[in-house]
Fold:
Amino acid sequence: MKASAAQTLAAAAATLLLFYPVLQIILLSVNKLPYFRLGGDFVPTLESFQWVLQQPEFWRGLANSLVVSLSTVAMVIALALPGAYAFSRYRFRGRDPLLSFYVVFTQMAGGLGIAGLIALFAIVSALGLRNNLLALAAIYAAGAVPYHTWLLKTYIDTIPRSAEEAALIDGAGVGTLLARVVLPLMAPALAVSAILSFIGAWGELILANLFLSGENRTLILWIYSLMSNVYSVQWNRFAAAALLYAVPPVALYVVLQRFIKRGLAFVY
Amino acid sequence: MRPQLLIIPGLLLFLFFNIWPIVYSIYISFTNANIRNFPPPPPWAPEELRQARQPPDYVGLSNYASIFAGPASAGFLGAVLWTLIFVALSVPAKVALGTFVGLLMSSDKVLGRSLMRALLIVPWALPLILSVVAWRYVFDPTYGVVNQWLYYLGVSKPPDWFVNKDYAYAAMVVIEAWLAYPFIMTVVIGALANVPRAAYEAAYIDGAGRWTIFSRITLPLIKRPLIYATVMTTAASLQFFLVAYLWNFIQLYDRFVLAYGFYWAFGSPFREYGLAAAVLTTSALIISVFMILAIRLTGLMRGMYES
Amino acid sequence: MRIWHALNPEEESVFKQIAAMYMQSHPNVQVVFENKAPDLQTAVLAAISTGEKFDLFIWAHDWIGLMVEAGVLKPVDNEVADVLPKFALSMPQYKGHIYGLPFTAETVALICNKKMVADPPKTFADLLKIMQQYNKPPQSYGIAYVVNPYFISAWIHGAGGYYFDDKTEKQGLTNPKSIAGFVFFKTYIMPYVGPNPTDYNTQVSLFLSGQAPCMVNGPWSIGAVKQKGLDIFVAPLPPVNSTYVPRPYGGLKMFYVTIYASREAIDFMKWFTSDPQVAKILVDKLGYVPVLKDVQVQDPIVQGFYEAVKNVYLMPVSPKMQPVWGAVDLVIQNAIVSDQKSIQQAVNDAAKDLCARGLC
Structure:
């Protein structure tokens, strides 16, 4: 079929309109003035980015965010993969209800998370786990278990059992089976799982704000603090900081798109 | 080795940090927990501390009475109603927008699709805090395009989209539509990705009009994925919270159920945790009922258990 | 001794320098500052429930009531009695007790561009003339004024009204004197305020660009003014007449004394807040407006705010004040920056809104 000028124009207009908010933030971050206005003064400069990179809080926040996010990824994979394998390969009592409970929870995680927040606050305080990066990662990982178990289970379902059966005949245990046979076949699904749990932990604000303070602040908390004093926000610096902060998740999303194109259509 | 053992570590952590807090919150909703007595000292705290800080008292259903028929009922029922209005406004908006761009991005007749797709997916990937600020700037009274256009169109006193409660709420609808359209778009593109082109060409040769092609070929293909996506995005609208929290919580606290619960727990004068827990428990119940009904009615989990 | 805070890095380093001075003369005392930003309130409340011990924390004074109710603070009326006469303000109290000492105050004052206004207006009539003279929209406006509850509070309190009474813990929006204050603001100031009256950035930029002769703002705005290189003076908001003297809300930044505070910690707080030398360091390095009597302030800008602080209406300490801000916002939206409702109607509706927020 031939290209249609009308359709291309409509698509371009829609894209421009929908991308405009982001475009504006990008322009704001490279403007010398602390604001940006369509048709107003615009003096391009990288000063705001330089300022951000000179802040010790930025680097400390970055390090903390990496600790939290990578720990979350490790815990999610370690906890969800064995569960997913069991759900996919075995039949046992309670399997179906638990699986559907996991799926329903996945869609309500946000709401239930807020509902449990008050109690979580008390539990974490009582255990002395406030202001502890690994404890925060464990909380994130716990909330991510249902979704990732389900996600990995769906993928394992598509892997033929023949390889495992051969290994079982050779007398391998479940652990060996997972590590030697299943794991290599699962690389794409594990990558997707890792990416999604990384992005989730990277961007979480409410729990981080409730539990972390001082030296342990993650990057999002520093960025949040840049905008929380309404009387003195330097918006161009804020925009630069927020854009730098957005680089890892956006880059990971690009990678993710490749996996989706390769047929991992279950990732929604 | 029993297969259950593989599930248990993940399940235990999940139960401890997600389900136990919810059960505990339900318990809190039957108490007068507030800043004076909550959180209570843990059982292993020194005796003097536990003496000084008595745990919350059991108050029966009084928090629930308060939110359904008492002092907090106007606020709570109002928040429920406004949340439902939000669903009614935002869900059609995001589904229509997402479907529209999804169809455009699936059309061979559009040049430069891959670049546009890459740009259109961005709102999905951005950290929420950046999205909120991007929109803060769009709605900024001085620098924002919205008010610039309103001026241009002859509105001499354009509204303040942050301080004014109703305009702030309207902004929430727009922002939620923007945050969610990439998801709908992706679903639509995915559903149309494997359509044999021959089907369209045959239809053209048969002289079918655009509408016929859309309703006979395209719609049946995207219908099921779209229903699935709509259910999920409706759940997201019901649980709308964080954007309102970052936008102007002082005014938007009673327009979204979760925000209303959060207000009583972390924003009210004495942090009325008990009342907040009642609000949040009820809200979670409403959301669960919706999810279960939606799953039943749409057969969303059909094929779930097979392997 | 442990001091919790959420100071910014600049403040933190000055505080540490001052503490180092103290430790030099008191070798047996160890002062440790611990940053608990961003959510100091939750950090304190969590600590108190688990028995984690710290001595003092630093925040604005409007948390006193909340922290007392939560069982965090202990009264120090007797311990601090000897230094109270040194302060230029009466101490904020909750249910008759003092729970800490302040080291700086913040409030709004009149900031004018000397190129447009030579001398501080003595009376409101003088200010009105200035506003009328410059009010030529859209080239220039009478005044840059952020129309929000905090900034306009001066006129409500000056008229004898109040948003909230700290003693009775009741709202005062429907009080006839408060209504008179709102009406005064709407009649005599609102007509001269530039576009987007509720937006902070718009109002500040009107003043910075020379489109308004004066603005009403606080010490936090001075950085931007200096950056722009404007020659300004700062003065208290001028009185309408001998009985109608504007009284803006004032906030104090202070040390809070926790139930675990040691004797040494209280002594350190007393020294920090009442020593004129410390006050001078805070003025010079951070531009803090002092709260002590007889501090020699050289900087005319800080001096202007120092004068303004003497007229403040202290921000309430009761936790029940918290929902009032949102309710006053409604009055402003419905009846001051627009004419959707009469002021009478708007304050009645705001009182209902307050009830829904838990303050009846």
